[in-house]
Write a structure and sequence with these properties.
Length: about 650
């Protein structure tokens, strides 16, 4: 793109000079030169999306100047250790794609009470092999119900129950010194209605009313509602809320107290950019950008995944790169596979949007295969997903703090002879334990009678059958449940990306009903799978043959195996293959670092894959299973035990 077509080059040079003489004037020559290099490098990437968003505004240059001023301020105040980190990341740009990366996700209070005491748990995290720690929302939430912290009233303060901003910086440093990168949520689609901007808007200040989507009557909201889905049809139906005190309808996609920000206003983008860089300068290395699909609204659409939502992310990325290039963006876009890939940056935005994003489809397909004891849908659906850009990585997970929504596409189901609607209904029945013989013990979340959707809450262990087995004192079933848990972890460890272990799943923690006693949590059953860490159980993790010890130790072993399997680098291609056995999933990872064949038995019965098929996939002679370290002979058919996974590499001939 020709920069001059957006802003005159003389103006751009003038802006740079202004920064060098302003916020950057006290910096030494080398630091200024570094800024200049990045400024010149990233400016086209800044201008391209900004022109899409605000190019028609007469005050475009003023807003651009404001954004660059924020960037320069943040650069000038970035602590030295973080500047060095930026240089380090630039010298090793694939750092987050390496097989050594292992993520762990937890709530500060549920894991360790406070930020300061998270530090004491670093040895535990290291024992697991963790290199990336996502602490669930920890910025100051509104008082009362706050959607698990996703209703932030002050982005510059930490939730006082967890500690202070200084505690956060100290923790980030301590983690970094142990090789663990800190990831924090940034809720950029909405603020709490108690946020300063929202309070001013509610008090009638027209400037701040322009930070949100507000309407004097139902005319526009009614038009939007015609094509808008509902995220929480149960406890927050509709997408707008009326406030008598200031006589406006406010856009509230999620709960009433979460007000959607209006990014048609460049001041909102500037405000959020400032917050991002503030957090980056505290030592946060990865920002989990919440609900990014919803950031732009357009009539007659579902107001998700709009091109402008991508432009906003691209602008954020290019701007933050100038001040804090080590910072990584993680997209939380729980959308259909075809809508998901653009969050990793496609076309002219390749490598210029988010580096990592949740692979929601893979997660759903794993559960679908487990319930069905068939891998046809998973194989077909994955084969129909486009390739991942080589400089990105997925976040692979078996479940998170949210419910599981059955994002199975009708087209994928139909292609293999299933009805998408009925299959989704089956999965809801199965995982809520209603289906005859189902091993799962989940609960239904947000039944939507209009669409028939029934999402599911539950911990990994409860969904995989351990809870039912323990209730029935059925040790055979408990063994199968343990195998399922390990199978799912083996899958996310082998797929392309950063595997995330959700706190407690490494110890097979079960559903926790204690949220029902807390009135501000009771109507949201996602809390059933957000238990408190059971440190007593964790203490038994080395005690012989308990399920806890088995899950923990086997998980650690698989993590170590992954760290030493170079073919699992995220750069390697990742594609599903037919094994000619509908019960055994096949996945190939292939790249410059080698080729690996994953075979996974999704049933409780022994399964076989014919040797011809293994040969056809290009694996011959002696094979080594990276999970167990055992060698296998591909001249015989391969057998897999119930729920067994194999990570096979060909042993090089000497
Ligand atoms: C994200 C979070 C979810 C929250 C929503 C609104 O989807 O994962 O927990 O309810 O955003 O912030």
């Amino acid at each position: 793109m020709n920069i001059a077509s957006v802003v005159d080059e003389v103006v751009l040079r003038g802006l740079l000079d202004g920064l060098l003489q302003g916020p950057l004037r006290r910096m030494d020559h080398l630091e200024q030169a570094l800024f200049r290099i990045r400024y010149e490098l990233y400016l086209p990437d800044v201008l391209r999306p900004l022109a899409k968003l605000y190019g028609n505004r007469p005050d475009f240059v003023a807003h651009l100047g404001n954004l660059l001023g924020i960037v320069a301020q943040a650069y000038a105040s970035r602590p030295e250790e973080l500047r060095l980190l930026d240089l380090r990341r630039a010298s090793e740009p694939d750092w987050f794609q390496q097989p050594g990366m292992i993520g762990y996700v937890c709530y500060v209070d549920r894991f360790a009470e406070t930020l300061a005491s998270v530090k004491d748990k670093i040895p535990y995290l290291k024992e697991l092999g963790v290199t990336y720690l996502h602490l669930m929302p920890l910025l100051q939430p509104r008082p009362g119900p706050n959607d698990g912290g996703y209703a932030v009233m002050d982005y510059r303060q930490v939730n006082p129950l967890y500690g202070t901003m200084d505690d956060l910086s100290e923790l980030a440093t301590a983690l970094r010194h142990e090789g663990i990168s800190l990831c924090v949520d940034l809720v950029c689609n909405h603020t709490a209605k108690e946020h300063e901007w929202a309070r001013k808007a509610a008090a009638g200040d027209p400037v701040y009313q322009g930070y949100y989507h507000m309407f004097p009557d139902r005319a526009l909201p009614d038009q939007y509602e015609m094509t808008l889905p509902e995220v929480f049809p149960d406890f927050a139906p509709g997408n707008f809320t009326y406030y008598d005190s200031f006589q406006r309808w406010v856009w509230t996609t999620f709960n009433e107290y979460q007000w959607d920000l209006n990014y048609t206003n460049p001041a909102v983008l500037a405000g959020m950019l400032d917050i991002m860089l503030f957090l980056a300068n505290q030592g946060v290395e990865i920002l989990r950008l919440d609900a990014v699909a919803f950031m732009w609204k357009r009539l007659r659409t579902d107001c998700q995944n709009q091109p402008e939502a991508h432009a906003i992310l691209q602008a954020f990325r290019a701007l933050t790169r100038i001040a804090a290039p080590g910072l990584l963006f993680k997209a939380e876009a729980i959308v259909s596979p075809d809508k998901l890939l653009p969050y990793l940056g496609l076309g002219e935005a390749t490598n210029k949007e988010c580096e990592i994003a949740y692979h929601n489809s893979f997660m759903v397909l794993l559960w679908s295969s487990l319930a069905e004891r068939r891998v046809v849908l998973m194989t077909h659906a994955l084969q129909n997903m486009p390739d991942t850009p080589v400089s990105c990585a997925w976040l692979t997970y078996v479940r998170c703090h949210d419910d599981i929504g059955w994002a199975v596409r009708d087209e994928d189901a139909a292609a293999i002879g299933l009805s998408g609607f009925l299959h989704r209904a089956f999965l809801s029945d199965f995982y809520s334990g209603r289906f005859p013989g189902a091993f799962a013990r989940g609960v239904t979340f947000q039944h939507n009678p209009k669409t028939g959707d029934r999402r599911i809450s539950g911990t990994l262990a409860s969904l995989a059958g351990l809870q039912a087995a323990l209730e029935q004192h059925n040790w055979h079933e408990a063994d199968l449940a343990a195998r399922r848990i390990l199978l799912l972890h083996a899958m996310i460890l082998a797929f392309n990306g950063i595997p995330l272990i959700y706190m407690g799943d490494e110890l097979a923690l079960l559903n926790d009903n204690s949220y029902l006693d807390n009135p501000s949590l009771a109507d949201d059953n996602r809390w059933i799978h957000r238990p408190r860490m059971d440190w007593r159980k964790a203490g038994q993790r080395h005690d012989g043959e308990t399920v806890t010890a088995r899950i923990f130790n086997e998980t650690c072993k698989m993590i170590q195996a992954r760290k030493h399997t170079f073919s699992l680098h995220a750069e390697a291609r990742c594609y599903a293959v037919w094994t000619h056995n509908e019960q055994v999933f096949g996945l190939i990872r292939a790249g410059a670092r080698g080729r690996l064949l994953v075979l996974a038995n999704f049933t409780e019965h022994r399964q076989m894959v014919l040797r011809h098929r293994i040969h056809d996939m290009g694996f011959k002679g002696e094979l080594i299973d990276r999970l167990e370290g055992e060698t296998l002979d591909s001249w015989s058919d391969l057998h897999l035990e119930p729920y067994q996974a194999l990570w096979l590499e060909q042993v090089p001939e000497v």
